[in-house]
Every structure is written in structure tokens, then in C-alpha cells.
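Homework-ish question, so no full write-ups if that breaks the rules, but can someone show me the predicted structure for this set?
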Amino acid sequence: MQVWNYIQDSKHIVRISKEVMEPFLSGEQVRVIYYYKKDIPRLRNFVKAYDKSGGYLNLYGVPVAVVNCIEEGNKVLDKCKAEGSENRVYTYSNGHELLELELETMFDVNSIMSNILQLLLLREVPILQSKTERLEYEAKHKGANNVFFAYQKAIGTYEHRVFMEVAYAYQEKFKFALTTNLEAIDGLDSNMESSNAGIWLLKCKASKDLPCDNQKYLDTIDLSAFARHVKRNSVPPVFNLPKDGKEHPYTPDLGLSVVYFYYRETTEKLVRNMIKMMTDTLGQAAWFVAVDIEKYLVQHVNYNGETPSVAVQNTDERDPVQMEDPWSDDSVFEFVLDRLDKNPRQIFKPDDSHSEKTEMSEVESSSSSDVEENMENSEDQSADEEGRISEVESQDDHVAEAVFRARKIDMDLELVPALTDKTFPTTVQDKNLVMVLFYLPFDHRSMAFLRAYGEASRKLENETIKEPLASVNCHDWTDVCGKENITLYPTIRIFKAGSVFKDYDGMLDLHEVVKTVKIMAKENPQDLSTNDDIGHFIKPDTEVDVKIIGLFDKKHSSEIKAFKSVAKSLSDKIVFGINSDGKGKEIGKSKFGCTLPCMVILKANDTIQPFTVYPAKFEENLMKSFIYTAKLPSMPELTVQVFPTLYQQNKPFAIAFLNEHSESTKLREILSEIVKKQVFPDIIIAWMTCDSHQSFGCQVLSFYEPQFSTPALSFVVLHESKVFNMKVDTISPETVQGWIQDVSDGKIPVSRSLEKKEWTPKVEGYNFLEFIDRDEKRKTRISRSKSEADIMNREGIGFDENGNEVDSEYYENLNTDSKEDEDAKLDQETRMELFKSRLYHHAEGRKHGESVKTPKDEVPIMPVEGEESELDFMEHDITGLDMEDHKYKDDIPYVPHSTDKSTSKSQKSKHEEL
Amino acid sequence: MYWSVFPWPYLVTTVVFVFHFTTSSFPHHHDYCVIGAGPSGLQIGYFLHQKHRDYVIFERNNVSGSFYVQYPRHRKLISINKRHTGSTNKEFNLRHDWNSLLSHDESLLFKHYSKEMFPHADTLVKYLQDFTTKLGLNVQYNTEVRDIHRPPANHSTDQNLYHMNDLNGNHYTCSKLIVATGIAEPNVPDIVPGIDYAVGYEDVSINPDDFEGQSVLVLGRGNAAFETADAIYGSTNLIHMVSRSRIRLAWETHYVGDLRAVNNGLLDTYQLKSQDAILEAGLEEIHIVKRNNKLYVEFDTDDDVDDTLLDNFALRQPYDKIIRCLGFKFDQTIFKNTTKLSMGLGRRRKYPKIGYNYESVDNPDMFFAGTNTHSLDFRKSAGGFIHGFRYTARSLHNLLEWRYHQVPWPSHTAPITQLINTIIKRLNEASGTYQMFGVLGDVIILKNNGVEFEILEEFPVNLIHKLSETTGHDASRIIVINMEYGKGFSGPGKDIFRPDRATQEPSDAHVSNFLHPVLYYYNRLPTEEDMRRATPGDVLPRPTLLHHIVEDFLALWDAPNSHILPLRRFLEGAVGKDLREVFAEICLGLALTHEALPHSCKEHFMQGQGLMPTYYLRRQVEMIQS
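A: Not a homework solution, just the prediction itself:
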């Protein structure tokens, strides 16, 4: 009687007798009863599990019970009398028997739980047995509910239990259904053979078509992970305060950061667009809360009240942290991604299916290699070919690849009108100033820039000049671009007052575009009629770093003309101011030490030389070429913006690599002094930041001097490929100046030379000539010549294979036309025979059956049938993925910003490359 | 007043004939005479007009395009008038507009004239008339020229002019002659005894009632034959069609001149055993006899063949009518009989023999335009049809401009960084090379050691060895871009819907079956010898490098990885440079550490036009790196 003792000791099993049977069974809920008749071997295990399950099932309102049939009073119960009842568990609801479950299927907690919950939810969680049933179910919930749909290898498994428990808890918010039939998941995931279970969210609520969009659940199937997943899905990804409620539902237990966007009426649209972009990109990597600050009192400690604005609160933070930079697509993305708990890079994978595919590919490739092992030959060859394909077809153009990867995020082009053949002429005509970007959608450079262009338009949104940026897609409007003689893509053409001013020739950079528009929107040159105007103009300005002032007397008419003309032609780059009635005489003298006529280049950010007075004759070309170099800082930081202009001066560079420590400051000051004194007018003294190994400057320096320390000074003669490194153990004005002098005098040996590299094609394209030759060889082996029936079929009776009539005229002309040479071989007699036979029996091949080839014989070189080629495609795809690790280790390294936090691996390769 | 009755030019002519004999001395002299104001005559006229050349178009009737007043007999054009393509690209849209001529006037697009996919022929007549008047083309109607000839060159002057007369006795001279008369003479075979019993397509009744309850035999299997059969098969007992070659369905052969689906109703009734039938036989072996008001087709038997073997002869039943639809041929009667005019060989014999520069092989300065130039691409491309010859006419005009007026072939030059863009743009929009695949191709001349290139659009690829002399552009390294179907893909009886009909693999692009771009790189211009030795069936001789761009379901070759990337690798091989784009920062890094820079850095970054990624793009690149 040991087992019965177990039952008696159990915590959750209710023992009932005949008397309480009726009230026990009367409830609506499911009840479970086991009728104990005798001790059978498997019972002990069962009872243990039954007890445990009872504990859980009680939570769902399902009591589990045992009736002891050995007791006299109970013996009369039907079930106690029934044969074999000891091998079953019985379920009831509303006093009626529901279903009996075989004891052997109830071997552990999971099986008991899942079976009983399944029973409990039989209507709520239907078991669908085919794809048709699934689609019917989807159809039923289309537009109404989202469905969690599970494939279970069997009923009663752990995964089944997890699914049922969660289903029980969330049945109000979602529909749940499951299948044990692989056929029913057709179209969802083809790789379930080896798995116990898979779960998909069928997004039928928003679905217009069938089947509903689906998303596979990728995490492990355990109760907490799946429950959290369902819970996450039960809350909306975006919550509006206060429209959707007073408090958002994104509690920290959901495990995701919350991104707050603050807006008011005027900025709502911007915020909405940004949220859309974010949700599109990040998916479920964070929650988003849109706060209407006019209707909701924000109590975030750090919030400064601005809109649009963004803040991020990670799960372990009490309060959100707000972004400080001005709002732009870029800055918001940068801020959010940097702040998020989860590694943004993982989240950021543009295509979630990648990871899945890799898993699948492992399975696929292992099985296919098994097959290959059995085939002895050509394994290496095909591997070679595959390798070659992935080499040729792996993108090694970073611009192209970045554009391709970014394509899923819509560009913000709302403020960039896309002009047509009708609107282009009117826009150009009507607007005082408009820049038109002519681009091609398949040009990577165009598309990379278009994104920046859109952002530039956003930054210019609040300027007085309305929509200064527009675009023409030259693939859509080839006629418009043709009339404008566009042959370079992208071209940014600046139109002023209805006619072409010039083509923009600056960097394809959003800030440069913004700057250009702002400068062009100004009156240029500005008329500075009073001393106040002049004084105001020469004050440093945060917005523009270079200004040029011209001070003239009335008599300087030719100088004024030249100045104005220069101002006009450079009016997209520099702000000019002019006084032409002598009022500037005093200021010119006192501030700049010049007499009229006087032109001064003002550089607000140049502490060494904040202004330069033009020293030569007022001739346009002279002035322009002077401005070209004088506008640069006297000791510039080497950046992408200034380098090209500096390089063109054809002078050696002395480059200091500096960080924020005092030694660096000292070196900087020494060099500033040298610059100020103009000791080396033929040397460009410049600097770069080298504060961490990842920083751009350090990477350059590490090429010059692998064992570097900061600060460092290198003398680089780019045109002669020579690099000299100063030993920087002692820095003093004398040592630095002396060293530079020694290098210029050729007294110092060269430390190293620049990398020699020919920029020839990196990867050869496909050699189609070879492919064709190979195929031809194969073809000739297979069929020596085309059958005549074939020619007749194609060209008709009485014609040769080039479509020429075979007659006396033809033979006469045979020698004059070499292309038709081969036709002489054709047998006229055979043809006539065929011809006659055709007239009587125009069924093809009746006489000459043996010479009529079936299409199958004809095309053996063609690759494969449907199934095989599909496989080919997949393998090809997979190879592409496998290559991903290696393919960008190429010769054009990506040099990241100094703020970048790259992985050590990519740094290493960058160092090698540089 | 009375004197004015005499046409004064006549007087002048007589006078000047005697004394001077210079060009200007002929009263009816033009630099260019175009014979025929059909679509091709008007098209070439338009180009001459645009360039302000001295030209006249002679038209024997009183309307432009008079062929279309009569033909097609049942009045439905079979050139598509696709008004919507989903694209706003006007050049691209011409790919699907087979009726419009080329001009700068957008109102002269056929879509404004008809909403029908296959418009009524009267619409085309109206269109051609508008084309003439709106563009102010110099057409001289009611002028049927005859006796075209060119006297020997030593005739007391170095001027070597074409002379001709009209039926009113006017005499005309011109320096260059452009024959744009089409192919409009009905082809009546003289080898079939009794052919006179047959009624020709040109005269056949278009009223189905005239065929009520009759048995009809149609000779021919072209579009005219089927058009005729389609129009009457609801009225007849049966229609038999006989032609010597197998039916060539346009959708099997990709040749628009073959039987079009719009006309092929009879194929159904044949294959569904509804009495109508089609068979193949040569007309040389038969004759037609009339007995008891019925027409019989009889087979010419040799004496030694036993007649009883022929008891199942397919055409043994009599017919009520026989309709001859055997096509058209070129009308040679406009030439004086001293003017030699060779005709093409074999099936091309209905066309005058011309060179790839559209010039008569017999008569210098005599050119052909329009459907009579179809010998060059017969059964291949669209040179016999408006949507093809509108482009060959333009090519001819470009050739003439250089040859006679020293105006080089239109072109533009761009830095090599624009090479891929320029090519991809053309591949995806150009209509001329698309319609005239295998005939007109874009030619890229690499210049300046591969730093620049020049593109010449729609050049006759068969003249590639004469590129410099025919265009005025120096060339040695060139890339020819040609559109091609796969060899052996199409043809009558081929299963063009077979499951493996298309490939998607860029590495298998050379087995592409559908129209796809093929690029030929030559490191020196092919010679005439090279051209002659080209493998039969190949358009061009073996190049230094060859590239196929894989066929595309949408015929849109803009996929970054499948189309553009392999193309770049090919072009890099041809140019000898790394053509990748590089972001500015990388260029700077390279500039400070390398002796040489990638081409893109030199062209863009070093010119102050480097490309800066937005933050979001930068992230993408970083992901590539990590």
C-alpha cells in the first residue's frame, strides 16, 4: 500500500469520496480525477508528478483528485467498476465527463500539465492538422487578432507545456493554436525536422493578405523567455503620452530600454517620422514613448523642455538621459544607439534572417558535403568555382555596400521636392535660390549623398529661404537631365534667379551643403555703409569661419569692380562685405594696418593669424588664388576638408600628432610660434589628434612610426614619398625648429617611405570567353552537327541554316559570300526527299524520326532542373554569408572617426592596411 | 500676264544647262532627295530638317504614309501602342511605343492618337500627316519620280549628281539620294501556273460575306495571310493555308515580322480540328487549275512517280477561292534601266543590296532608309519596322553628317568614374539599342589612358572596324555594348517556355536566353579581316574581354550585386583601374600613407569633392568592418 501512502502524503492531490463527488464536479472549471484501484508499477512516478502538477494547476483553477476505489463506499462508482479505469485519468467539467487520458501519456509534470491545459483550452488553443486548417484559422483572425502558432513534435512535451501555460495566461490578448503536423507549418520555416518545437507570431491583425506576416520566435523555449516575449508583444511598441494613457506599460522586467521622444504640435511630425524610422530599423530592441509635452507634465529630472528631443532610459536607470546635440536624423540615431543597453550592432543587423540562414546553412552544407564525399571527382573544382563566384560577387566597394545595406531605411526627403519635366523649369524659374541635385538611383555615390542631402534639407528647414534643395532623378527624367547636359552623377547645380549660377564643387557632405545654402542666402557682398556695419562685420561669427572685407574709397572703381566680381564668383563659399566710400579707412588702419584699397581675409577660428591683408594688385585672378590659400587656417588640423587644398600647394608637411596632455600642448605652442614667425613659409605645419589607438591620427602615425608615443612630429614629403620622424625626447623651440631645418636641409635620413601600391583591379571579372569556349567544347562533343530536320524546322524547306534559299543562284554566289560557306555541305537530295514527304505527311519526323532530336538531347549543357538549381542558389547564397568575415579585409580600409569604438579585430586589419 | 503661264524654272533650266552645269544651276536641285514620304522618309527628313540641310521628300501620292491608306487591308496595325509602362522615362517608354517616329515634339507621340493597343491604320495616316505638317517637313506631294540615274562623273563637271524626272516632266537633281520607298510591290510568283486564279492580298475583299460557305486556300503564312484568314474564318467552310516553311510564331522567334499572336486565331481552329488547316509545301511544285468553277491545286508529278502514291495528297479537295498573301518586294521601276541595282541573296532578295552604312553597293551616295534596309537584320532585329528603322534612320543621318558635313557623330565625354553609371543608365532606358539589338550598339571609346571615355550611342556595330572614319572620333580601345538573345534559344518549334529558360546567376550570364546586355572590350579596333572572320552567328569578332550581364525578368539591370558589381569588375579589367568609390576619410588616410591613390580618391576627394557618409551610412560601413 505504499502508493496510497504517497497519495495521502501528497500536497496537492484532493482525495474525494462518493459523497463529495457531485459538488466536486459541479464547477465550470475542469476537474481531474484518478480512480485508484490497485498498485500498478508506473503509478508511483505518476503520483509524484500528479501531485506536483496539482500545485501548478491549482493556479489555473484546476483541482486534481483521486478516488480510492478500494474504499467500500466508492466501489459502487461507475469508474471504479469500469474495466481498465486504473490506466486512465478522467477529466470533467460542469458535472460531465470530458475526456479520458491514458496514464502512459502522463509520465511527468510536463505531460500532465500540457495535456490538461490543452484540454482546458481545447477551444481556445485549437490543434490544426494541416496548412489548409492553419490558413483558415489565419483567415478567421485576419484584421482582428495576432496568433501565436506553435509546431510541437508531440503533445505533452516541455515545449508544449510552456506554450500552453503562456497561452492560458495571454488568451485574452492573443489567439493561440498549434500543430503537430509538419505540413501545417509549410511556408513558415522549412527546417523543423530536427527541432522539437517552433513558435511563430502570425501578425494577422494588421494583415490584409494571407498568409499573415509571420515572425519566428528565436529565443529558447522556456517559460520565462517565452512569457516575456508574449508580454512584449502584448504591449504596443510605441506608446503615446497622454493619448494612450497616463502611464506607459514598459516596465523594466520586460528587459528593454525606453526611448522617449518629446514633441509639441509643431514638432510632432518630425518625431513621428523618427519613431517610424527607429521602429523600422531597431524593431523590438527598445520601447518608444512619444510625449506630447503640451498635454502631459513631464517629470523627468533631466528633461529641459525642448522639442523635438529624445531621451533614453535603460532598465537599470531611474530617469531617462536626454540628448544634448541638436536634433537631426543622424544625431538621434547616434545618440540612441550609443545609449541602448543591448549592443546596437547586434540589434542593428539589417536582416534578422541572416542568423537563421547561417544556422540553416550549417545543416545544409553538412548534409550536402556528405553526399559530395561519396562522389569522388570534381569536388575541388566545384569548390574552386564557388570560391571564385563569391570572390567576384562579394561587394568590395564600401560605398556601394553601405548604400545597399541602408536601403531599408527610408531617407528623409520630405523637404527635397523631386522635380519632374513640368516642375523643374517652374521651380528653377520661380525660386531665387535653389540647388538641384541630379542623380541616378543606381549610382552608389549619388545615393550615399542623397541621404545626406535630405538631412541637410531638414537642417535648413527653419531658415528664411524655403526649400532651397530639390532633386531630379535622371533615370525617371532622362529628358530633363539631357536638356541640362548632365553627364556627371551626382551633379548639384545651383540656380539663382532662374539661371545657372554654377555647379556645386564642394564636398558631398551634409554640413558643407548646409553651409553653402546659408552663405548663398546672404547678400554677397554685404554693403557696409556705416562704421557700425563694418565693426559688426569684422566681429568673429560662430556660423561662418571665413569672411572677407573690402574697404575702398570712391575713386577705387576698378578695384571695387574686381572685388565685387570676386565676391560674386565665390558667393557660394565665403561671405564678403564691402565699404566703398572711404568710411573704412580708419578701421582698416587701426585693425589691420592697411590703407585703402584694402582687402582682408578674416579667419575667426585661427588664433595664430586671425586675419590676412591682401598684398597685391586688385586683379580678379590674383585675388582669387590668394583667397584660395589664405582662407585656410595657418596651422590647420589635417582633415578631409582642408587636405586637398593643402596638398595642391605641393609643399612638405610637418605634422604634429597631439593629445590633450601637456607635452602636446607644449609642442603645439612651439609650432604655433614657428608659424607665427613664418620661419618656414614653404612647409605646411599641421596637426592631427592622436589620443587613442583607434583615432585617425594615431593610425596614420602608427604607419609612420610603429612604436610611437604622443606627441610626435613627422615631416612628410608626399610628392617624394619620404617620411621623417623626429625623436621627441626633448621638446624645445630650438630642437623643433632645428630639426625641421635639418630635415629641409637634407641632413636627416629618411625614416620610411610611403606604401607603394598600384590601384589596379582587385578581383578579375568572369572570363566569359573562357566559359563559352568550355561550353562549346562540351557541346561539340555531344552533338556533332545540327540535324537537317532542325534546320528545316527553323528555316523552312529549301533553305539552309542561315535562312538562305538553296537554289542555283545560291550556289553561284557561294564564293562571294564567305559566311555562307558551310552550307555547301548540306545535302540537297535529302532535303528534297524531306520536302516531298512533308507534303503528304505533315507530321514532324514521320519519315526521318531518327534525325529529329528531342529537346532534351539538345540542351545538355543547360544547368539542371528546378530542384537542383534551387539548391545551387541556396549554396551560393550561403557562401556569400560565409565569406562575410573575410571579404572586407581588403585594401581599402575603413578609417573610422576618432570617436569610434571599433573592435580590436578591425583595428588590427586597419593597422596592417595603413 | 500671259507669259506667266510658262513655268519660269523651265526657261532657266534650259539656259543654264547649256552654259554652266553647276549644282546651283539646276532649278530643282537639292543636296538630299528623299524618295517617299512614308515613316522612314519622314524620319530621315526630320533629321535633315533639324540640321538645316537642303532636302526634299518626294511623295507620289497626296498624303504622307499612303501605304497605310491601303494596308494592312483589315486595318488593324500590329505594332504595339503601349501607353503606360509605369515609368516616366521618355526614352524608356519608346521601347514600348512601336508607332511613334522620333522628334523633339512630345505631342507627336502615338499614345496621343490612339488608346488601342493595336490601333487602326487610319490613325497612323493621320499621325504621319501631323508629323509632316507640325514639324514643317519639306514634302513635295504628287511627285512620282522616275528614271533615277547618275551620269558618269566626267560629264564636263566634277559634280556627280543623281538625276530624275517626275510624271509632269519636271527634272530634279540631287547630290545624295535617300531611297525610302519601302517594300510595297505585291510579290506574285511567276513559277506557279494558274497563279492568276488567285486573288491577291492587295485586292482581296475585306467583307466576310463574300466568303460565305466557301472553301478557301491561302498561300502564305505571314501576318497578312493570317490577318486575312482571321477576318473570314467565321464565314468559310474551311481555310487551308499553305506555305513552304513552318509557321514562325513571333513569340517563338522574337522576331516581330513573324506571325503575331494578334493574328493567329486560325491556329486554334487548326489544332482543335475545326476543318481549318495549315501545311508546308513549296509553290514550285504545284499548279492551279480551274474546273467547274472550282480551283484545284495539283502537284507536279514526275513521269516516273506512280500517281496512286498520291491518293492522300492533302490539297486534293477543290477550293472556291485562293488568296495570295506572299508578301511584298522592292519596287525597282523608279530607276532608269541603266542604273544597276543588285538585290540581296536568298530570302533577302526582295531587298536591295546595301552596305552596313546603308549605302547602295552599286551606287555611291545612294542610301536606303526604312524597311528596304531590312536585309541587314532580316529575321533578327526590328530594322524592317517603324520602331527599328526610326533608329537606323538616325544612324544613317549621323553617318551622313560626318561624311558630307564634317559633323562628328554625337557623343559626350566624361571621366571614367562615370563609366558604370553611363552604361547602366543606357542599358535601362535606351530604346534604339533595345529595338535594334545586334545592329545598333553603344560604343565607348577609352581615352587618355583610361581616365576619360567618350560614348557614341546607337552606332551600327557591323561598322565597328570603320569607327574612326565613319564618325570622326579617334578610337583604338573600345567597349561595344550590344543587346543579345541567347544563341539557339528561340526559333520555330523551340520550347521557349521550358523550365530552364532563364538563369539568375551572374556567373552563368553567358547562357542567358532572353535579351540581355553583352559588352565587348577591344584593346585595339577590330580590322575588316577580324570582322570577316567572326564566328558565324556571332555579331562581333572575338574581343579581348567579354562580359554578359545576366538576363533579368524585369529587363532592369540595376541590381547592385548581380548586375553592377560583375560589370564593374569587367570594366576595371578593360580600363585597368580600380573603379571603386571611396569615402573621403579613407582617401585621406591613404593619401597620407600611400604613394598613389585609388582613382575615385584622385577624381573626387583630391578635387575637394570627397564623399562623407551620414551617420547612418557610417554605421553600415562599421558593421561591414566588424
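Now go work out the reasoning yourself. Hint: Residues 409-575 of chain B form one domain.
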